[in-house]
Design a protein that fits this description.
Distance between the termini: 43 Å
Number of strands: 11
CATH topology of the largest domain: Thiol Ester Dehydrase, Chain A
CATH class of the largest domain: Alpha Beta
Radius of gyration: 18 Å
Strand content: 35-45%
Number of helices: 5
CATH superfamily of the largest domain: Hotdog Thioesterase
CATH architecture of the largest domain: Roll
Order of helices and strands: EHHEEEEEHEHHEEEE
Structural class: alpha+beta
Shape: globular
Length: 249
């Protein structure tokens, strides 16, 4: 049996940015919530995995923003798995306005890790056995190794973040939305104030935990495109690599 999750959210003030538009971190939280509800229907929710000694980890995320909803609007988040193989499960998202206008779409790739060993493991059989919906055309798959991952991020401006208690989730590592908020905050002020995010492509490389110290860097490809890197301050190990593209409001 296959399942498609549809949830409706009404945008509250704290889910919007300084311009009254839905913030990207809030949108990602909506997506995570809808994804877990869909996973529950399949019997592979966070608690279902934890009881078997596993946890979910987001490995890749690609977001395309078409239009930004504003405070008070209702949006629908639709999500479903699209492909499953030995190590990865792919999941798509679509975000719609009340009138059916496509506001955003996103692609993601998830892996499973052993809670005891904190290492990636092949997808257990009970996950690989799930049936993705067949009546929806999936978005193109994300590249496992996008080109930007091999380009250095050499910005002289570095922000330091100490992982807080409220940055971690049930899997005892930093929630992926916290990383995205940190890397977006490293974009120059004039871009944040006068532009809106159009595209975001993220690679989640390694875990971090409370109270690790992380270094956040952004390197401009041009005025409205940036490469991002989050690394462990102590070891220099990559935690997150990303690329963002912005458009003038």
């Amino acid at each position: 049996m296959s399942f498609i999750q549809t949830d409706t959210y009404t945008l509250r003030g704290y889910e919007c940015d300084a311009n009254g538009r839905l913030s990207v971190p809030a949108l990602m939280n909506f997506m995570q919530e809808s994804a877990n509800r869909n996973a529950l229907d399949y019997g592979i929710g966070i608690d279902d995995l934890a009881r078997r000694g596993y946890g979910w980890m987001l490995m890749r995320f690609g977001l395309h923003m078409h239009h930004y909803p504003r405070y008070g609007q209702k949006i629908s988040v639709i999500t479903y798995p699209t492909f499953v193989n030995k190590f990865f499960i792919h999941r798509d998202f679509r975000v719609l306005a009340d009138d059916g206008t496509l506001l955003a779409d996103a692609r993601s790739i998830w892996i499973v890790f052993s809670i005891d060993k904190r290492t990636m493991v092949p997808l257990p059989d009970f996950i690989r056995a799930l049936t993705p919906p067949t009546n929806i055309e999936p978005l193109p798959k994300l590249d496992l190794k996008p080109d930007f991952q091999n380009l250095p991020v050499v910005s002289d401006e570095t922000q330091t973040v100490t992982v807080g208690w409220f940055d971690i989730d049930q899997n005892q590592h930093v929630n992926n939305v916290a990383y995205v908020q940190w890397l977006l905050e490293a974009v120059p002020k004039d871009v944040l104030q006068g532009s809106e995010l159009a595209e975001l492509d993220v690679i989640f490389r390694n875990e971090s935990h409370w109270p690790d110290q992380l270094l956040i860097r952004a390197d401009a490809d041009d005025a409205l495109a940036f490469r991002h890197r989050i690394e462990q301050a102590e070891t220099g190990q990559d935690v997150v690599l990303a690329r963002s593209v912005w458009k003038v409001c």
